[in-house]
Amino acid sequence: MSERVIFERLANTTGETCGIAIPDGTEMIYFDRVQSNWPLQIYLPVGSRTPLWCTSSGKLYLSSLPREQRPLEVDEQTLHGKSFYLLFLKGFVPPVFLISLVLGSIFGGWATPTEAAGIGAFGALVLAGFKGKLSKKLISETCQSSGILPPKSRRPESEISCCHTFVFIGSIEP
């Protein structure tokens, strides 16, 4: 019996994704994987490299090492105290606030779903600006691909998208 058949049987018996990964410095390299049948999955093709502390295989490997043998980068990545709360405030709170604002405006009755979408789009732009991910080139490409600005080559689908944009703008009540 081949090792692949045994591997597939193990994944089917446990109902979990099974992978063979080998440590390489501060990363794990996946050599084989059998996906489970869960509705939400992370696709890691053979040859994928992931940080040790981001996968169950890596965490299992790290737990088997004495603390003094663990790579220094892993200890630096471990979040304690202030750094955890700072990461939490910067990475989790703004998107949750934005989602709450959009859904709250709909359920609170002071915005229609279309208007709330506009609030969400504006809020996403503000968050991208604060994170330094917003550039003039990105805005221009987005506007051209959505049809707000004329594209470099005219396409009928961009005109339809532009029409939808103006329907959205026209639906906002004064």
Description:
- The chain is mainly α.
- It has 3 domains: 3-78, Beta-Lactamase (2-Layer Sandwich); 79-134; 135-174, no CATH class.
- The protein contains 8 helices and 3 strands; from the N terminus they run H-E-E-E-H-H-H-H-H-H-H.
- It has helices at residues 3-14, 56-64, 72-77, 81-91, 93-107, 113-130, 136-146, 156-170; strands at residues 18-24, 27-34, 49-51.
- It has a 3-stranded antiparallel sheet.
- A hairpin with a 2-residue loop joins strand 1 (18-24) and strand 2 (27-34).
- The longest helix is centred in the last third of the chain and has 18 residues, at 113-130.
Characteristic terms for this protein:
174 residues, mainly alpha, Beta-Lactamase, 3 domains, 8 helices, 3 strands, 56% helix
| Low-pLDDT stretches | none
Number of domains: 3
Distance between the termini: 72 Å
> What's the helical proportion of residues?
55-70%
What is the string of SSEs from the N terminus onward? HEEEHHHHHHH
Please report which band the strand proportion falls in: under 5%, 5-15%, 15-25%, 25-35%, 35-45% or over 45%.
5-15%
- Please count the beta strands (DSSP E, at least 2 residues each): 3
Structural class based on helices, strands and sheet pairing: mainly alpha
Largest sheet: 3 strands, antiparallel
Write down the CATH class of the largest domain.
Answer: Alpha Beta
Number of helices: 8
Short description:
The protein is mostly helical. 56% of the residues lie in helices and 10% in strands. The protein folds into three domains: 3-78, Beta-Lactamase, CATH 3.30.450.40; 79-134; 135-174, no CATH class.
